[in-house]
Amino acid sequence: MATIYYEKDADLSLLKDKTIGVLGYGSQGHAHALNLKDNGARVVVGLYQGSTSWEKATKAGLEVATTPDAARKADIVVMLIPDTAQASVYQKDVRPHLHAGKSLVFAHGFTIHYKTIVPPPNVDVWMIAPKAPGHRMREVFVQGQGVPALLAVHQDATGHAKGLALAYARGIGSLRAGVLETTFKEETETDLFGEQTVLCGGVTSLMKNAFEVLVEAGYQPESAYFEVLHEMKLIVDLMYQGGMEYMRYSVSDTAEYGDYTRGPRVIDGHVKDNMRKILQEVQDGSFAKEWIAENDEGRPRFNRLRKENRGHPIEVVGKRLRGMMAWLQPKEPPKQWTAGGGPGGS
């Protein structure tokens, strides 16, 4: 059984005399920095000179410095910039300021597990990985709650790494919900596998294929959109609250019977075999090498796929329908996102 920690297991005072350098002010960075600040921690946000986030962080009442200055000032250096940028930023701006006894912290294990960052042996290396996007993490924290997180210690040079990690987890609010102890290996591999096979890749591919089958059979695109995408939130919310059993209790017997008898025909043994292949690519580092190379080459395939998927008919129809639902508060990604930016940057 996994070990799970709660607020009673952490001593927030361990952060009292520490300066926490949060590098990046994107999706995760802003939530970590603000939650820690609200819990009394001394925080400095590290950004590159000219970052558009500099003014945002300053207006939020946070101290802001250049990335190397933040790393120099910090006792706890938290890497919350995108995985693909971490190695170069680490070598240039962080490594020169990693003195004995400091902590190097991550919210995802990618760069440590695949050894694109190899820290010196005299620093603590640990991870607190919240299981929610940053905006949701901040929203829940302000409401007096927290999102669950994962904790892992890769290197304990001081003998106090786990205590500091738990204090940090309390500082960002995650111990209100529970923090599960794991390893960098397990967090990285399960996270990538989940994203690729279910949470992002699996769900979107399932929806697009179902939409195409209905439209090709002559059904209205609008009807297809409502059936295979819009109603997904209802089903996921039910499972989120009470698992598959509660979802099946909540839907009709017809839907439940279709679930049992037709679902396994769609997601069959071939799909499971493909999932095993994807897991192998995660485990042996093939995916990591591919993604690192893609970034080194300027992201040609990534940018092409992003453009193609933004133009898929299910997206075109969905955008129009969502625009008619005033109660929904439709969301659009920022314009710079189409040029290769993302929510995790600084």
What does this 3D model show about the protein?
There is one protein chain. This protein has 346 residues and is an alpha/beta fold. The protein is built from 16 helices and nine strands. The protein has a nine-stranded mixed beta sheet. Strand 3 (42-47), helix 2 and strand 4 form a beta-alpha-beta unit. Helix 8 (184-199) packs parallel to helix 9 and helix 8 (184-199) runs antiparallel to helix 13 (269-283). The radius of gyration is 22 Å and the shape is globular. The two termini are 37 Å apart. 32% of the residues are buried. Mean pLDDT is 95; it is low at 339-346.
Map the helices and strands.
Elements: E1 4-5, E2 19-23, H1 27-38, E3 42-47, H2 53-59, E4 63-66, H3 67-73, E5 76-79, H4 83-94, E6 103-106, H5 110-113, E7 124-130, H6 134-142, E8 149-155, H7 161-171, E9 179-181, H8 184-199, H9 201-216, H10 221-230, H11 232-250, H12 253-266, H13 269-283, H14 286-296, H15 300-310, H16 313-323
Parallel strand pairs: 2-3, 2-5, 3-4, 5-6, 6-7, 8-9
Antiparallel strand pairs: 1-9, 7-8
Helix pairs in contact: 1-6, 3-4, 8-9, 8-13, 9-10, 10-16
Features:
alpha/beta; 346 residues; single chain; 16 helices
Number of strands: 9
Instruction: Give the C-alpha Rg.
Output: 22 Å
Major β-sheet annotation: 9 strands, mixed
**What is the 3D form?**
globular
Enumerate how many helices there are, as a single number.
16
The chain-level mean pLDDT equals 95
Order of helices and strands: EEHEHEHEHEHEHEHEHHHHHHHHH
**Content of β-strand:** 5-15%
Q: Given the helix and strand composition, which structural class is it? A: alpha/beta
Instruction: Please bin the fraction of helical residues.
Output: 40-55%
